[in-house]
Structure formats: C-alpha cells, structure tokens
Design a protein that fits this description.
Elements (H helix, E strand, L loop, with lengths): L10 H6 L12 H27 L4 H19 L6 H27 L1 H6 L6 H21 L3 H14 L15 H9 L8 H23 L1 H13 L5 H14 L5 H19 L3 H14 L10 H9 L3 H30 L12 H23 L5 H16 L9 H35 L1 H12 L4 H16 L4 H11 L1 H6 L4 H13 L9 H10 L3 H11 L6 H7 L9 H23 L8 H13 L5 H35 L9 H4 L1
Helix pairs in contact: 2-3, 2-9, 2-18, 3-4, 3-9, 3-18, 4-6, 6-7, 6-8, 6-18, 7-18, 9-17, 9-18, 10-11, 10-16, 11-12, 11-13, 12-13, 12-24, 13-15, 13-24, 13-25, 15-26, 15-27, 16-17, 18-21, 20-23, 21-23, 23-26, 24-25, 27-28, 27-29, 28-29
C-alpha cells in the first residue's frame, strides 16, 4: 500500500506501459514466487521472436499461436482477478485455470495444424469448445489490460453475426450458427489468429523490443536532454522541450499513453517549475505524445500495418505523412508560445542546460540505430521483420562503442523483458480486433457500412468526412494506435474510397482521426495519464488538450482537399499546397488560441478561424479569401499594437513619474 492506502502499482505493469484497472499485484510470498517465472517467460518470448526475425517465421497459425498463448499467460499472471484479501486465493485459482486454458488453445493449434487446414469450414466439437475458451480468454485478458471498450465492441459483433436475420434494413444477413462463428474466430487465420495478431507476431514486437533496447541504452533521456539543449533557452522552453522530446520518443512508441508516461515524468515537472499551470503542462505533454503516433519514420508502428493493408511501399507512406505531421507540431508550438507570452515566461538559464553539440558528439550512438533502421527500410527495401531484427543488433553493437551506453548482459535481459511487457497491450488489442475483423469478413458488414455512410451523407464528400471522423474518434477511444487503425481501416476507409478519396489518403485520414481520440474526452487516455503526473483535473486537462491540439482535427481534411500536401500532383501543386496549408494552420491556431501580437477580439478570432478553414481546399478563390482575411487581421493587430505603444510613450513623456513600460519588441 502507498501513503494514501491505495494498492501500489505493479512494477511489471509499469514496464508494460499500461494501466492496471484496479488490479495491482499485492506484495506477498506467492507473487514474489511468480516474479522470476514472469521474467524468464517474457525473455523467452522476446528471444523466440528475435529468432524468427532472423530465420523466418513459421506458418501463420503456428507463429501466431506461439505469440498469443504466452501473452495470455503473462497477462493472467500479471493482472490478478482480485486484489482483495478475501477473494485473493479464489481469484488466483481462477487465474490458474485461465493460464491452463491459454496453454491448451495454443498447443491444440500447433498439434492439429495440418488437420485444421483440411477441416476448414467443418469444425468438430473440440474445435467449438476450444473456440469458446479462446474467445473468453482473449476478451477477459483485453479487459484487464485495456479496459471494457474493445471487448464490448467484439461481443457486439459476435452477437451481430448470430442474430443477423433479425437485424433491420441493409444490416440484416442470413445469420451464422455458432459452429461457423467459432471456427471462423478460432481455428482460421481470419479471427483471433488473423491479420492483426499476425502483424503483432512478426514485426511489431520486434519494433517494440527495439524501442526497449534504445531505452535501456539511455536514448530516452538523451532525446529529452537534446530537446532541452535546443529549445530550453527560448520562451516557454520546457513546454517546447516536451513537444520535441515527445515527438522523438513517440515515433518509436506504439502508445500515446506510454509516451506520456515515458517523457512526461521529465517534462511536466519542468513546465510546472517554470510557471505553467499543471493542467496546461499535462495537456501539452498529451498533445505532443499523441502526435508522435503519426510522425515518421515509425508512426507508432502503424505504418507497417498500412503497408500490408493497402500494398504501398514504406517510402510512399512516410513521405506522404511527413508534412501533415510537421503542420500539427507547428500548431502545437504556436499554442505553447502564445501561452508563454500570456504568462510572461522566459526560457531557462544557460547554466541549467546541456550543450547540444556536446550532446551530439557524446550521444551519437543513440541516433545511429533509428537512422540504420530507416536506411534498411527505405533504401535496402528489407522487410519490416528483417529490419527490426537487425536494428536491435545494430543498437547493441553501436551502443558498445561508448562506455556510457554499453549494454551489460543484465541490461540486455532487461530490454528483452521490457519489450515483451510493452507488447502485451498491443498483442491483446490485436487479438480482440481480430474477432471484429472476422465478423466483417464473414457477414460482409464493411460493404453495408460503406453504403449506409454514403446514403447518410447523400454521397457528398464533406458530410462523409465529418461522419467518418466522428465515428473514428468514437471507435478509437481507449484503444492503442494499431488496433484502432485496423478496425477503422476495415470499417470507415472503404466508404471514403468509394466516395472518391485516394486509398492512401483515406487510410491516413482514419489513422489521424483514430489517434486523436487519445486527447478527446470522455476517454482521453493520454490526457488523463498526463493529468495523473501533473496532479491536474483529468477532464479539464482533456478539454484543454483539445484546444491546444485542435489543428489535429483539420489536418486529416487536408489529406483529401489538398492532395499536394501528401505529394499527389505536380511539384507546383505540392509547393502551393504546403504554402496554403501552413498559412491555414497559422490562422486557425491563432484564432483558436485567441492571441496574435496581442489579445484577439471575438470578431478577429472568428475571421482567423474562417480564414484557416478556407485555406484547406485546393481552390484559388477560397484560398485568396482566406489569405485576405489573415492579412487583414495581421495588419489590424500591427496597427493597434503600434498605436498602444505610441500612447504609452507619450504618457511616459508627459509625466516624468510615469512608469517605464516594455518596448513593443518586449511586448511581442
């Protein structure tokens, strides 16, 4: 128990980068007995995936079952059924049953692999019984690690598959018996062992382990120090450090919430010490960490799922995603700077900051592995699995060149263990998402949803995009990046493609929309994690995060209405799109934040927001009107600022006792 009488957070759960929903492991003899078992099982899982990353994966069902069963076992060991003393023994007995079931469903797939292949579509009683066990195990494990949202969605889809004949309108279907549903969900490569868990079982775990190795070398602290060295002295320095540091760390992290916990422990206290309110500090960290999920080159590992789903190259995706991500962070930087102006904050003293050049000269081993990874993916065209394996090898090799970053055998084991622990959330979410995807393929629901959305929007693109964004945010709430994208790519993206949106733009649209659910109340997990660190009101932090990151809600529309921004079109189209989008983001952000050279009146704010929106589409008349509105507000602000400064100087000259006011430059 902690000082407040609450159960302490499990160290294992902390390393997993997830929140234990009221099930922190108690400190007793049995739990201490489990610790080495958990540790060595986690290390064995990581070693197995390193081996298959080097030698090649097994058959789909075998590889995925070997991946999922240990993940389920670790979950039930780490997350007890109950921590209350009166129910603890019963709960642990139930957990032992769950562990036995997790072993059984995996061994059955491996043992019956060839038989299941020939018996596809004709399940026997054992298939059905173990199918029920597998679904229950996955749903319960996902609930313990992530919460109720995704399991309830999966249950709803399973019920839909069975009760299809009773559904109204176009959503009705002929219905499927429980044998077909269970076979499709368990013994095929369409359900629990489908595409989502396949991605987790091959390269996602390798990239998460790669991030764990980087962390073990000290790269996380290096990124924060580098950001402090570059931006610590500027106005509102620590908040801008949070933006940069979270970007660097977030792009190799598969969870915005884990990113907040990883970098927020450094940046949030620094922002509070400088003078930022706790709520603002937490909101800035949440918005910055969320943006790391769509910042190349890793994009929270979602980029590799996108490669498999829409069959484009890695280079195409990260090139198209780069400029919108930069625009997002430009908007966040402006919001942070304007808040620093409002509070009258300055940067940190030089003596408190590290020197960037010295940091780079001493810490280049931390930068080399990500560069090597991108080189292998972009220029050597290696598969993500092969690249992930050799990136880990490169991390160990390069870190050994400097004594400060050299990994000891114990640190290597810690990194292997941490990589598996951090995979729990992703793997379980992917397995649960696989149930949802299997019902889509079984019932043809995707085509029906696309038709319904087109009808609802009357085949007009803008209403379709708005409906798609709202739906994506709602479905993405409480989910990690990858499973959220997988579900949205199946549910929403096809309807956007049918409405005429290029496929890659449609998928980037739903990816962004799903990710920003992390800062959208009522289930804004990234904002709530930041609030916990800053000791700020969670809901208030979530709404402030929306205001700071509001540009994220218009950037997805730029994918569609300004194709040059994602390098679709001629070089002139690209240059024009970049220019208008940047001006639009500036106008929109200033209008939302309510300040430019000075405080904005309501009419100025409305004009700026409208001007920013008019800069989104590739339309010269609309862009011209938007530019005129932006320039009009800038001119008015400059005139008003100059007039105030002149009156202040005249007042000071007329009365020698008048106070000395700051200059116009200082006011800015």
């Amino acid at each position: 128990m902690d000082a407040n009488g609450e159960p302490k957070q499990s160290p294992d759960a902390e390393e997993a980068g997830v929140i234990v929903h009221g099930r922190a492991r108690p400190d007793n003899a049995f739990e201490r007995f489990l610790n080495p078992i958990i540790t060595w099982l986690a290390i064995a899982v990581a070693v197995f995936h390193l081996y298959t990353g080097f030698a090649g994966a097994y058959g789909a069902l075998i590889q995925r079952s070997i991946h999922l069963s240990p993940i389920l076992i670790l979950t039930y060991l780490l997350y007890p059924t109950s921590t209350k003393e009166r129910y603890y023994v019963f709960g642990r007995i139930l957990d032992a049953v769950f562990v036995a079931g997790s072993i059984t469903i995996g061994l059955y797939i491996i043992d019956q692999y060839h038989v299941l292949t020939f018996r596809d579509g004709n399940p026997n009683l054992t298939d059905m019984l173990l199918g029920i066990v597998a679904i229950i195990l996955v749903l319960e494990a996902t609930r313990r690690v992530i919460g109720w949202t995704l399991p309830l969605v999966a249950v709803a889809f399973v019920i839909y598959a069975y009760w299809g004949p009773n559904m109204p309108g176009i959503f009705g279907h002929r219905g499927y018996d429980w044998g077909r549903i269970l076979q499709h969900s368990y013994t095929s490569t369409e359900g629990i062992y489908g595409f989502p868990i396949g991605v987790s079982a091959t390269f996602v775990i390798l990239f998460i382990t790669f991030g764990a190795f980087l962390q073990e070398t000290g790269a996380g602290r290096f990124f924060i120090d580098l950001a402090f060295g570059l931006f610590g002295r500027v106005r509102g320095g620590p908040a801008k450090v949070a933006v940069v540091g979270s970007t660097l760390f977030g792009t190799i992290s598969g969870s915005a919430t884990a990113n907040v916990v990883g970098t927020g422990t450094f940046t949030i206290p620094m922002m509070k010490r400088l003078g930022y309110q706790p709520t603002f500090a937490a909101a800035v960290e949440a918005v910055s960490s969320t943006g790391g999920q769509f910042m190349p080159p890793i994009m929270g590992a979602a980029v590799f799922i996108m490669i498999e789903m829409i069959h484009v190259t890695y280079r195409e995706i990260i090139v198209m995603a780069l400029l919108p991500a930069i625009l997002y962070y430009v908007a966040v930087f402006i919001a942070v700077d304007l808040e620093a102006v409002r509070l009258g904050l300055r940067g940190m003293d030089r003596s408190e900051l590290p020197r960037p050049l010295r940091l780079l000269s001493e810490g280049w081993p931390f930068l080399a592995p990500p560069v090597i990874l991108v080189f292998m993916l972009m220029y050597m065209h290696w598969s993500p699995t092969k690249s992930g394996f050799w990136a880990i090898v490169a991390t160990v090799a390069v870190s050994s060149l400097k004594a400060a970053s050299r990994l000891s055998p114990r640190q290597i084991l810690n990194a292997l263990r941490a990589g598996t622990m951090a995979t729990l959330q992703v793997a379980l979410a992917c397995a649960c998402a696989g149930i949802v995807v299997s019902i889509f393929t079984l019932t043809g629901l995707g085509a029906k949803v696309s038709f319904a959305l087109l009808e609802l929007a009357h085949e007009a693109l803008l209403p379709m995009l708005v409906i798609g964004m709202v739906t994506s945010i709602l479905l993405g709430m409480g989910m990690p990046t990858m499973p959220a994208y997988i579900i949205l790519a199946v549910l929403i993206a096809p309807s956007l493609v049918k409405a005429g949106v290029p496929k890659i733009s449609a998928h980037l649209f739903v990816l962004y929309s799903g990710i920003i659910s992390a800062i959208t109340p009522p289930v804004a997990l990234a904002a709530y994690a930041g609030a916990a660190i800053a000791k700020a009101p969670p809901l208030r932090t979530g709404f402030l995060a929306i205001r700071i990151g509001l540009a994220a809600f218009i950037v997805p529309f730029m994918f569609v209405y300004s194709p040059g921004l994602v390098f679709i079109g001629s070089p002139l189209d690209v240059i024009y799109a970049v220019g208008t989008s940047l001006l639009g983001i500036l106008a929109f952000t200033y209008g939302v934040q309510g300040r430019m050279l000075s405080e904005l009146h309501i009419a100025e704010r409305i004009l700026l927001v409208a001007s920013g929106i008019l800069m989104i589409p590739y339309s010269i008349p609309a862009n011209g009107i938007g530019l005129f509105g932006l320039l009009a507000v800038v001119a008015w602000q400059r005139w008003r600022s100059a007039d105030v400064s002149l009156r202040l100087r005249r007042g000071a000259g007329a009365d020698e006792a008048a106070p000395s006011y700051p200059s116009q430059e200082e006011q800015r």
